[in-house]
Design the sequence.
């Protein structure tokens, strides 16, 4: 009997060469299921895509025309690693709406605030350092922290945001365990995914807790200007200039296609951010910066933000009404701004395991597990109301209700017969699914 | 290619199924391979405008690189038959038989092949007879280890390996029913996981070299299938010539018993005695960067692009005949 000496392959000869930080970067079944969200038949309540159609294209094309007419050579060239002074001036105006006073030199323009998040993490986190984050937290931030091998410690929230006492207890417990805590990552206004807003009193208290424990606050504020009822409290950075790195973006108030965000940081950190930015990308897109500068100079951008608020308010209300009508067995918060409703499913349901059934029913959502680094969130889902029309939202929620009922019926059939969960916790969404920021 | 007009191919990829992402990956690679052979290829995600698109494009041949229902259950293929449009792979009725795992197992067993003992159960069975009673009977009659999978579907989605039926079967059934309303409970055969790909460009079904599958995790899961590096493939498999020949013959037998055409992938477990146990057959095997079919073609000495083009030409010729 002969046996061949066969060739073997894994299709990746470099498999053993990857850095440890790349270990979470893999395709997963959960992530693959999101592929259907791009089909027109599917109502996607999963992605956090701004409704850019509410932005008149004439405003943008006029800005682009002026860029090419007046600044063509500069806009098509490399630029400064810190961003153009003109745009940084305008960024100060934008931030002033939330009580922030800063200096032009302390702003660093980045490729979306996601890159600023990456740069700050790169500057501060050694493998094993702790990042404190709300429970739940933004999936894209969890991915960044993981990629730098941070340990993520969640801190509980309630309807007023991060709970100061929980923060104190978490810090004490981590310190007792000999851990090094470097950052508190927080989305204080209209949280992604939880929808809640940190009260003013708690902002002050939390800054004090972090100051006294030597923890830098990373304030991520993409939604602050997208309040749907009343403006939220002023930014944490308006209270503390030395202990906060503030992240802002034009992705939600203008359009994400420009990929322009920024960090406002204390002087010493800002210097390192500029160098890190140059090292990563040489310079942020000059073209996008010129375009946004022209837009901010010529268009009534505050009125445009108000238009966005009107669109999102109508959609939020449609979603809340549809939830009340179709899913009385669930509970949810009422977001006063931002893009998301955070829904708690009936006891026993698992948002991740329910996803294949949702795909069959032509509705997509983001399972709560995506927003936890510790395996939590199984009984929660994030629903986005920013992109689908109110009619689509109503259809989507009706379909979701059918999914929930089917799932309840299935679990009821098998009640008391054994453990129901078979998908391992490590089948996490290691990086944001497409359009799930 | 000669001076004649290039072959016009419509590759259908995407669709609405749990395997949409895999289908898109397969479709892009098929298009690249055929374009490299001089074909004129258009990739289309099928939707309500599909038939208008096909009428307008008037392709010489359609490659339905769709997975999941509509792609593999024979429906779309039957429609293409009605329209008289040549296409790659199994005809509609045969695809429908192969797509349903319990049906495929019955047909292949009738053709004399070994297939693990199994039981197909609708979700309603558990509701009507009481889940605890049914689970108890399964655990008694099939003490394990078991594999539970949706009766229809691919890419290991909804599949659970059960070592302890008394404690794990309920969760496994629920997992499968999230994908399909009928689940297959199958005795798990211990052995070597192999696949045999079949290609037939007109000269009869040819079994390509047997591929042995060794996932790092021990389970050929979705993640092991589509993340390069997570599974080691040995082609040809590390088995004797005799066992390889038996497996190849078994694959051709399954291909014929199911009435498949042009290409398929037949999955087996080889037990210690070298007996290939039929698990399932795919009428449109994945053709991604980490898929077995292109890998087996290359090891057999076929140029992938040329082989795909030959399939297209054979489909056109068969339609013209």
Sequence:
């Amino acid at each position: 009997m002969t046996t061949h000496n066969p060739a073997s392959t894994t299709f990746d000869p470099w498999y053993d060469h990857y850095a440890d930080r790349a270990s979470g970067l893999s395709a997963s079944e959960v992530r693959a299921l999101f592929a259907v969200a791009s089909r027109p038949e599917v109502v996607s309540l999963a992605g956090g895509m701004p409704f850019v159609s509410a932005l008149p294209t004439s405003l943008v094309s006029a800005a682009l025309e002026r860029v090419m007419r007046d600044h063509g050579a500069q806009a098509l060239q490399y630029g400064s690693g810190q961003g153009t002074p003109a745009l940084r001036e305008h960024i100060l105006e934008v931030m002033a709406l939330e009580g922030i006073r800063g200096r032009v030199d302390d702003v660093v323009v980045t490729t979306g605030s996601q890159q600023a998040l990456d740069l700050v993490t790169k500057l501060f986190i050694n493998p094993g350092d702790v990042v404190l984050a709300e429970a739940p937290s933004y999936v894209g931030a969890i991915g960044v922290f993981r990629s730098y091998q941070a340990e993520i410690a969640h801190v509980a929230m309630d309807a007023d945001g991060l709970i100061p006492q929980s923060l104190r207890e978490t810090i004490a417990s981590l310190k007792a365990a000999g851990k090094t805590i470097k950052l508190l990552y927080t989305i204080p206004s209209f949280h992604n995914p939880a929808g809640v807003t940190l009260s003013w009193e708690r902002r002050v208290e939390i800054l004090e807790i972090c100051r006294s424990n030597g923890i830098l606050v990373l304030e991520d504020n993409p939604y602050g200007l997208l309040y749907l009822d009343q403006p939220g409290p002023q930014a944490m950075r308006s209270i503390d200039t030395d202990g906060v790195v503030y992240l802002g973006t034009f992705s939600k108030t203008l359009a994400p296609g420009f990929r322009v965000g920024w960090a406002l940081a204390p002087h010493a950190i800002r210097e390192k951010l500029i160098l890190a930015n140059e090292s990563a990308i040489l310079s942020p897109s000059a073209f996008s910066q010129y375009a946004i500068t022209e837009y901010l100079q010529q268009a009534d951008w505050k009125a445009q933000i108000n238009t966005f608020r009107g669109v999102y308010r109508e959609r939020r209300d449609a979603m809340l009404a549809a939830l009340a009508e179709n899913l009385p067995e669930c509970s949810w918060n009422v977001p006063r701004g931002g893009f998301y409703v955070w829904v708690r499913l009936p006891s026993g349901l698992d948002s991740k395991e329910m996803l294949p059934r949702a795909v069959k029913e032509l509705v997509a959502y983001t399972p709560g597990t995506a927003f936890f680094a510790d395996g939590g969130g199984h009984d929660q889902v994030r629903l986005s109301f920013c992109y689908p029309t109110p009619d689509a939202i109503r259809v989507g929620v009706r379909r979701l209700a059918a999914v929930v009922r089917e799932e309840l019926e299935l679990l009821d059939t098998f009640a008391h017969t054994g453990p129901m969960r078979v998908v391992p916790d490590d089948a996490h969404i290691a990086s944001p699914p497409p359009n799930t920021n | 290619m000669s001076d004649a007009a290039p072959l016009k191919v419509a590759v259908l990829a995407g669709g609405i199924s749990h395997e949409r992402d895999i289908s898109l990956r397969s479709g892009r690679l098929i298009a690249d391979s055929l374009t490299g052979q001089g074909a004129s290829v258009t990739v289309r995600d099928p939707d309500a405008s599909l038939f208008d698109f096909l009428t307008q494009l008037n392709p010489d041949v359609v490659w339905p690189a769709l997975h999941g229902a509509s792609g593999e259950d024979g429906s779309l293929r039957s429609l293409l038959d009605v329209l008289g449009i040549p296409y790659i792979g199994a005809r509609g009725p045969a695809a429908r038989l192969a797509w349903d795992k319990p049906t495929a197992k019955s047909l292949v067993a009738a053709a004399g092949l070994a297939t693990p003992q199994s039981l197909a159960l609708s979700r309603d069975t558990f509701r009507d007879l009481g889940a605890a009673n049914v689970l108890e009977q399964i655990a008694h009659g099939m003490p394990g280890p078991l594999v539970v999978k949706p009766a229809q579907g691919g890419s290991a989605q909804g599949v659970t390996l059960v070592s302890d039926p008394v404690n794990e079967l309920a969760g496994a059934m629920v997992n499968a029913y999230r994908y399909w309303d009928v689940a297959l409970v199958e005795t798990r055969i211990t052995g070597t996981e192999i696949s045999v790909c079949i290609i037939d460009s007109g000269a009869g079904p040819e079994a390509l070299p047997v591929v042995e599958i060794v996932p790092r995790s021990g389970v050929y899961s979705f993640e092991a299938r589509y993340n390069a590096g997570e599974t080691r493939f040995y082609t040809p498999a590390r088995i004797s010539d005799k066992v390889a020949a038996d497996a190849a013959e078994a694959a051709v037998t399954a291909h014929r018993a199911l009435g498949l055409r042009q290409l398929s992938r037949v999955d087996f477990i080889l037990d210690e005695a070298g007996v290939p146990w039929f698990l399932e057959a795919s009428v449109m095997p994945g053709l991604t960067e980490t898929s077995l079919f292109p890998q087996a073609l290359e090891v057999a000495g076929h140029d992938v692009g040329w082989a795909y083009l030959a399939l297209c030409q054979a489909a056109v010729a068969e339609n013209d005949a």
Observations:
- The CA atoms of residues 370 and 428 of chain A lie 7 Å apart.
- The longest strand of chain A covers residues 151-158.
